[in-house]
């Protein structure tokens, strides 16, 4: 399957640090990296489903998010979203239990304007908001779910503790299921136009994928296979499983993930994490 084109356009106490190669990265560092990502996913889904974010305990006394709203979801999609948020909250809770006193607080997160700015960068459009409709909500979730899968896959071979490895290896398929659900829902709506833009869902997704690919060193794919002759077709072949051509899911390093969720630069906080992630990563 064809990899997408490349395009992507402190807190006082605990800012994320990109470690030098001389500093060993521990299991807890990787767990805290996963925790930052799970906080974002859980906060987005919680706001969309319930109209509010995570409680103080789940946030680890972190500041929470800005920009979230209860989404305008159909009954069917609301039921799916409830399952997603339950899984993500469970992931945050499990990571906090595993890390104990070493768990970082959830960082400040932008789950409103970040989507608007990313859609502008990807497609040149204004005013995209993920809480307006079913399709907008799914597109918003698509922006980070695939990233979480590649981050966990990248962490697995670096882990030492069998207990930690078992937990992360257990999270990995759950996140992959989530991403597959979203990609399937988007493919089923692929020929529809995203309101109020004259852009098909297929093309909206490809724009987001290209954006991630530019920042994250490639390793990203949309939900369709472009025709070999380059011609446009209204019903292209599905590409529901992003992989490397050998049936293996992509992996990303923390630096590659940070570049995506920060909006293009791994060392400059922004987009979803305006004050940076919390922890120590390389």
Describe this structure in words.
The strands form three sheets. The protein has a two-stranded parallel sheet. A two-stranded parallel sheet has the order 2-3. Strands 4-5 form a two-stranded antiparallel sheet. It is mostly helical. The chain contains eight helices and six strands; from the N terminus they run βααβαβααααββαβ. Mean pLDDT is 90; it is low at 1-17. The protein starts with 16 loop residues before the first strand and ends with a strand. It has one domain (17-281).
How much of the residues is beta strand, in percent? Answer: under 5%
Euclidean distance between termini CA atoms = 29 Å
The domain count comes to 1
Task: Please tally the helical runs, counting DSSP H or I stretches of 4 or more residues.
Answer: 8
Give me the side-by-side strand order of the main sheet.
Answer: 1-6
**How large, in whole angstroms, is the Cα Rg?**
18 Å
How many E-type strands? Answer: 6
Features of the shown structure:
about 280 residues; mainly alpha; two-stranded parallel ribbon; two-stranded parallel sheet; 6 strands
Strands, helices and their partners?
Blueprint (H helix, E strand, L loop, with lengths): L16 E2 L8 H24 L5 H4 L5 E2 L8 H25 L9 E2 L2 H11 L10 H22 L6 H27 L12 H15 L8 E2 L11 E2 L15 H8 L18 E2 L1
Parallel strand pairs: 1-6, 2-3
Antiparallel strand pairs: 4-5
Helix pairs in contact: 1-3, 1-5, 3-6, 4-7, 5-6, 5-7, 5-8, 7-8
């Amino acid at each position: 399957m064809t990899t997408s084109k490349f395009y992507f356009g402190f807190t006082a106490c605990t800012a994320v640090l990109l470690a030098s190669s001389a500093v060993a990265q521990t299991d807890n560092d990787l767990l805290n990296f996963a925790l930052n990502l799970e906080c974002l996913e859980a906060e987005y889904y919680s706001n969309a489903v319930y109209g509010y974010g995570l409680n103080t305990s789940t946030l680890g006394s972190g500041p929470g998010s800005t920009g979230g709203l209860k989404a305008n979801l159909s009954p069917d999609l609301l039921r799916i979203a409830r399952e997603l948020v339950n899984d993500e909250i469970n992931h945050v809770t499990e990571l906090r239990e595993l890390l104990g006193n070493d768990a970082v607080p959830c960082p400040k997160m932008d789950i409103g304007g970040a989507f608007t700015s990313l859609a502008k960068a990807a497609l040149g459009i204004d005013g995209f908001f993920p809480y307006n409709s079913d399709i907008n909500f799914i597109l918003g979730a698509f922006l980070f779910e695939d990233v979480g899968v590649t981050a966990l896959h990248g962490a697995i071979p670096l882990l030492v503790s069998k207990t930690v490895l078992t937990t992360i290896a257990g999270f990995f398929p759950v996140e992959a299921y989530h991403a597959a659900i979203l990609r399937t829902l988007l493919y089923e709506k692929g020929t529809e136009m995203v309101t109020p833009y004259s852009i098909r869902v297929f093309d909206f997704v490809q724009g987001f994928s290209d954006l991630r690919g530019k920042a994250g060193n490639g390793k990203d794919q949309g939900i369709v296979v472009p025709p070999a002759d380059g011609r446009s077709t209204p019903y292209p072949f599905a590409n529901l499983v992003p992989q490397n051509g050998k049936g293996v899911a992509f992996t990303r390093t923390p630096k590659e993930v940070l570049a995506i969720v920060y909006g293009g630069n791994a060392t400059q906080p922004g987009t979803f994490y305006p004050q940076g992630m919390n922890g120590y990563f390389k």
